[in-house]
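Support request from a user on the community tier.

User writes: "When I paste my structure tokens into the form, the page sometimes reloads and wipes my input. The last time it worked, I copied everything first. Here is what I submitted, just in case something in the input itself triggers the reload:"
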């Protein structure tokens, strides 16, 4: 079937091209009570009094330095991640959000997500976060089984997880996510299903359900825990949990994301659809398109102490990398093929500035292997392609000429599935 081609990049007005790409803001708050052994995010155990005022001041300096990169573009969503952002007081979050309103053009329908851990919240704190302007929570439950929470190094217990979700409802949050893991050391299928049932009973609008992975630079990678489920059990857990979520009204829309009607995470959808995002905070990453049609990544110093001292100065910039056209192909597909429904065929050109012709040979290979379905309107992974997503993505590696791991380190490092 002939494929309708999107407009080639050479015909784009670059300034208009950049303005059409949605823009979001990621804010990194790097401290937590204790570093979990599976966590590979830029998080640091808090060993002193939390420097709330100084850090919010640093975020403002950081943002002001980046403002020329975005001009007058509107911000569609804000995600406050960590670390454990709920360690910060509601007063600090309120001051932060007020400062953002003063410095940015924000959408009327702005989604503002704040990550919280059950062991660091109280009902009054949730209410105050809501009054400060946060309208979506992401609560890191991970499991409702005491032994699994202990092995994961979590600071909360089963009852605290229940209380956190109940507190979210009481505080007036009509949109919140629960994070759950499966494939835990010693976990049975019955326990994985019990975790899903417990989460559903708490009536979140969104559930992130993802497999425990042993990421480099984590304690679990260096000292793998005993009793990890084998591949067959992992697949059975995933299939059975997906069925239970579907039966209870949660639509599977991304590899590890499930949402009730109209409650998909808009911030993360922008990542997966290769939108632009500004990143402020220690170790935060951004991806931006400029008025010349160039795309680059920009990240900040990871060490919180260095960041506090240098924010707003050139020394706070950890690096800036241009994304060559060939690299955009892999980055786009790495993100967009995580979506169960795939993406409109014109989105590739709209977000990369490249003609679809560059993709055609690779799309044909993927279709021949029954990993991808595509026509003149849509490109989507097949059920086989979703199951063997890494195999599907590897088909796009030769065009990019660089290792997939380096992409994960920059384009997906701050991408949350919550």
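"...and here is what came back when it finally went through:"
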């Amino acid at each position: 079937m002939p494929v309708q081609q999107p407009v080639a990049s050479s015909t784009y007005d670059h300034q208009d091209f950049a303005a059409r790409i949605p823009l979001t803001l990621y804010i990194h708050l790097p401290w937590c009570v204790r570093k979990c052994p599976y966590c590979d995010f830029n998080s640091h155990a808090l060993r002193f009094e939390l420097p709330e005022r100084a850090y919010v001041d640093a975020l403002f300096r950081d943002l002001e330095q980046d403002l020329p990169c975005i001009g007058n573009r509107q911000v569609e969503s804000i995600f406050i991640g960590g670390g454990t952002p709920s360690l910060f007081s509601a007063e600090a979050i309120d001051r932060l959000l007020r400062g953002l309103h003063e410095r940015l053009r924000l959408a009327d329908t702005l989604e503002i997500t704040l990550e919280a851990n059950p062991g660091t919240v109280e009902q009054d704190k949730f209410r105050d976060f809501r009054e400060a302007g946060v309208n979506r929570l992401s609560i890191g439950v991970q499991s409702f089984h005491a032994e699994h929470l202990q092995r994961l190094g979590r600071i909360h217990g089963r009852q605290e997880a229940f209380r956190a979700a109940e507190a979210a409802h009481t505080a007036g949050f009509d949109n919140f996510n629960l994070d759950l893991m499966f494939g835990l050391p010693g976990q049975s299928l019955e326990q994985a299903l019990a975790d899903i049932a417990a989460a559903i009973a708490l009536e979140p609008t969104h559930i992130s359900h993802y497999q425990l992975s042993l990421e480099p630079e984590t304690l679990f990678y260096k000292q793998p825990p005993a009793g990890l489920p084998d591949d067959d059990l992992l697949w059975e857990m995933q299939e059975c949990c997906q069925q239970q979520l579907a039966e209870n009204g949660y639509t599977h829309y991304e590899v590890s994301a499930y949402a009730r009607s109209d409650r998909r995470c808009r911030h993360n959808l922008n990542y997966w659809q290769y939108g632009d995002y500004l990143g402020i905070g220690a170790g935060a990453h951004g991806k931006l398109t400029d008025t010349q049609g160039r795309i680059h990544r920009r990240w900040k110093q990871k060490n919180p102490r260095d960041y506090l001292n240098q924010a707003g100065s050139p020394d706070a910039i950890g690096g800036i990398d241009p994304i060559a056209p060939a690299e955009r192909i892999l980055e786009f597909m790495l993100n967009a093929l995580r979506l169960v429904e795939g993406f409109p065929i014109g989105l590739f050109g709209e977000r990369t500035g490249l003609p679809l012709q560059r993709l055609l040979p690779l799309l044909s290979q993927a279709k021949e292997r029954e990993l991808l379905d595509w026509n003149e309107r849509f490109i989507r992974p097949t059920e086989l392609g979703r199951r063997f997503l890494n195999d599907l993505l590897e088909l796009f590696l030769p065009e990019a000429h660089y290792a997939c791991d380096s992409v994960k380190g920059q384009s997906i490092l701050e991408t949350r599935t919550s």
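Agent notes: The reload is a front-end session timeout and is unrelated to the input. The radius of gyration is 21 Å. The chain is about 40% helix and 20% strand. Escalated to web team.
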